[in-house]
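This part of the workshop introduces the protein records we will be handling. To make this concrete, we reproduce a full record directly below:
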Amino acid sequence: MLKARLSIGIVCPYGWDTPGGVQNHVRDLAEFLIGAGHRVSVLAPAIDESQLPPYVVNAGKPISIPYNGAVARVLFGPIAFARVRQWIQNGEFDVLHLHEPAIPSISLLACWAAEGPMVGTFHAAAKHQKVIYAIGPILEPAIEKLSARIAVSEAARLTLTNHLETDAVVIPNGIYAKRYANGVQRDKWSGNTIGFIGRFEEPRKGLQVLLDALPIVARFAPDVKVFVAGPGDPREIAKSIDPELRHRFEFLGKITEEEKADFMSSLAIYVAPNTGGESFGIILAEALAGGACVVASDIPAFDSLLGGGEFGALFTSEDSMDLAKTIIDLLRDEPKRKELARKGKNHAQKFDWDVVAEEIFSIYEMAMVGGEKITLASDSRSWNRFLSRDGR
């Protein structure tokens, strides 16, 4: 990235020490930009400040709220507002990059508190949220201040246009595709194997759909085995597995990035049975980059990422019978499975950070036309003023 060196402030709305796609995106983008010679400061809520990388500033301890079918750990309120203002004042930033500024979070606070070149990235793909109606009078004037808007997928863009009647350029989430391209095939994960990675205790991640499909798959592939990786307590999930099939399941817990690359390279099929609430699907892009044959539910974000089935197989969301049929078809047809994996691996290169960061950086440059720098907004001193109905 041979361009002018910038001072970039990035705001992550969700708790840094909680696994999540937005946090991973912010981390990877920040580290890529730092590696390219830019000065980057990330503001994020965090519980354990001692575990933060040097480029992350702790905005305070997050609280948990229900959001988009999951639990979001965010920070909002007058104390957070004061910390956001202090970070902006000390930062001397050329541009601010605010992630998910349309929810009550420090990203929204930063949007209100600052003036100058600001870019917003919208990740959520969801139905109307009650919170949007509750804070609409605050939200809309703040969102209008953004110099440019990014959506991570067409599904996220449509959510933005439907909720706030504004538009955005689509730039996908980034992955380090090369990290996954060199995975080593491990015997323990090879054969007629199916993989799943995610917070399996969250119903919207769809593990139950895969569990319900397994009895059918096992009749046609008696040696099939399922590996489940990710955070969570498997004991409750294990109770819902047919006792005769429990020996076919193995819960791996959290795995490292190196292990993930090997995992994707070894599996016969990677399954993403998510039931909704996904705006992109970073794990799908990583699976493709690792050479896995991907099977995913046909929710809009996954359908778009997989090119309508060109780069991975799709099944009807929440339909375990259709999932079983799709898995059996691919397990029986090795040439088809390998060809789908080959196409997917090539497709994944478009999500590599070398490509995605350049696209984001071009948005920064567009936002900075005019030469302004980030300053505190003159009307952002008062929390009560922030809460005023007309936003002025």
Summary: Residues 21-35 form the longest helix (15 residues).
